[in-house]
Amino acid sequence: MLGFRKNKFRFVILIISIVLQLSILKAELFFKPFNVSYDHRALIIDGNRRMLISAGFHYPRATPEMWPDLIAKIKEGGADVVQSYAFWNGHEPVRGQYNFEGRYDIVKFVKLVGMSGLYFHLRIGPYVCAEWNFGGFPVWLRDIPGIEFRTDNKPFKEEMQRFVEKMVNLMRQELLFSWQGGPIILLQIENEYGNIESSYGQSGKDYAMWAASMAYGLGAGVPWVMCKQTDAPEYILDACNGYYCDGFKPNSYNKPTLWTEEWNGWYTSWGERVPHRPAEDIAFAVARFFQRGGSYQNYYMYFGGTNFGRTAGGPFYITSYDYDAPLDEYGLLSQPKWGHLKDLHAALKLCEPALVAVDDSPQYIKLGPKQEAHVYRTEIVCSAFLANIDEHNTASVRFLGRVYSLPPWSVSILPNCSDVAYNTAKVRTQISVKTQEFGSPSSYMTEPRILQVEEVVPTISKTWMTLEDPVGAWSENNFTVQGILEHLNVTKDTSDYLWLITRIQISEEEMSFLEANEDSFTPTLIIESMRDVVQIFLNGQFAGSAVGRWVRVVQPLHFVQGYNELAILSETVGLQNYGAFLEKDGAGFRGQIKLTGLKTEEIDLSTSLWTYQVGLKGEFMKVYSPDQHKFANWVHLSPDKLPSMLTWYKVLNFLLLMECFNQDSMLRILQK
Length: 672
Ligand code: GAL
Prior knowledge:
By secondary structure, this protein is an alpha+beta fold. The protein is about 20% helix and about 30% strand. It is built from 13 helices and 32 strands. The chain has an eight-stranded parallel beta barrel, surrounded by four helices. The protein starts with a helix and ends with a strand. Residues about 440-460 and about 660-670 have low confidence and may be disordered. The structure holds beta-D-galactopyranose.
């Protein structure tokens, strides 16, 4: 008996030691455990001040298959850190049911970052903005009684804390914090709350302080950041976001100067031009930041990627989140941006010993009216930055006995205070030109484009197939109630689409009146306020549509005598992701829906019986998926017959849903 107990004891000890060894091994795969702290000059990593370059890369905006290659290109580009938000609505699509699989396998992602020798900055939020649907909030959050987002509100704070704790505990359990040998050196709570804090009065101030102390209290063991939060408490770092942050000063002398979002490009909205920021200007902004005392800078985004599925925020942000980033949507190097910034990082690294060695401000030398030098010098090292902030003229300046020619709007980096290793305006990287062939098997269409019907038709070849979606209710799953229900309360954001169908009776008398007074009386549907898109069908025929954010819709209608079926398709195009009071914004219709222009008084349709149908048939049948599309009755598109308003298109390897808006046609990519 005693022997058995002894053996059992030994067995337990053996198991414990194996588990311990395994976990140490696991941790050592990444780093030897190290501490992260900070002083007024920089983050202190394992006892040393560091100047850090960080690369923004949101893991669900690429597929896990793409992650290793993208991380390798980030490393090769000279970054030290990868930065990402955590996406609450992706991780907890249903309250209490978590998803850490596939594109949401954050543990795998952080481990890949660690394995490549890079650090990680995890911005938990959980409000993230990020042009992400509803700013990252799960839509079910709206349904919690008494909830008000991002303010001193008990139900919200409880939910927020639960998610933040979940993420911190997960990272700790997976040994991903620096002190465990993992790559995580920084965290973030909230996101740019300072921008909207005043909308909530004292409750906003109290909430910000609660968020800070709640986060800090989780004992994660690495510093927390609150970006754009000038009232961040002493124990939380504040940080700048913007196109230029070289004038930024943190709210305490004890904190280093951090730049959490260097906007090196921008997102694209429906129908708007694709933004572009030149590599020279980005390099200038970054060099100026380090010149004037900055110590951590993150590119937002280094890789932007794709808003898969229905993750794009808005309203009206598109599928691509390319962001004009150094790595394009497909993970290809965007040149000369990637290469020019790589050269910049190499030059900055040469300056790092001097930058971290100088404890106070660098020596400032005025070189001309719009030219200045900052010199980081100790007895052993010396690095200097010479800036010409004149946007138009080259300047010739004298610095430490030598003459330097500074191109307009540029910074020269002198790692040894004498030789120019890099100038932000001089691009040495070759420019790459990418072309895309419409519909070729090897290319993807990256941005949905607004096309005229006439523009689409000539491109139609035999390979195009179409599938019409029915107008109105298409499944048993519809219900009829009196009145207009709020869009999200019905869809729960399971679909962008909501059909509202009602019947309107036009009597013989009314019809004769309308016919007799055709010139002065036009029956007109009025929707007082709606967002984002509405399409109106009368008796199965398309009548008109409108697009906008809380706009009034005025739609003339041509009735027939007897019963008329009015079917309105209400659509969201990405839920609001920025601003105060997000929970109150909602979607669909506000105010009255009525019919005017009849012989009788106005008809208030807001109190009529309406049938509700969530989603489109093709969407629910997943006709866009590789497995399911073959089960639908596709027909060849013929240029002789223009397709109906709600038509799925398939050509080679992608599918589109085309919606025509009067003159325009909008192509939406539902799935690549
Ligand atoms: C910032 C925000 C980011 C992103 C960015 C624009 O203000 O923090 O999440 O939305 O704007 O791309």
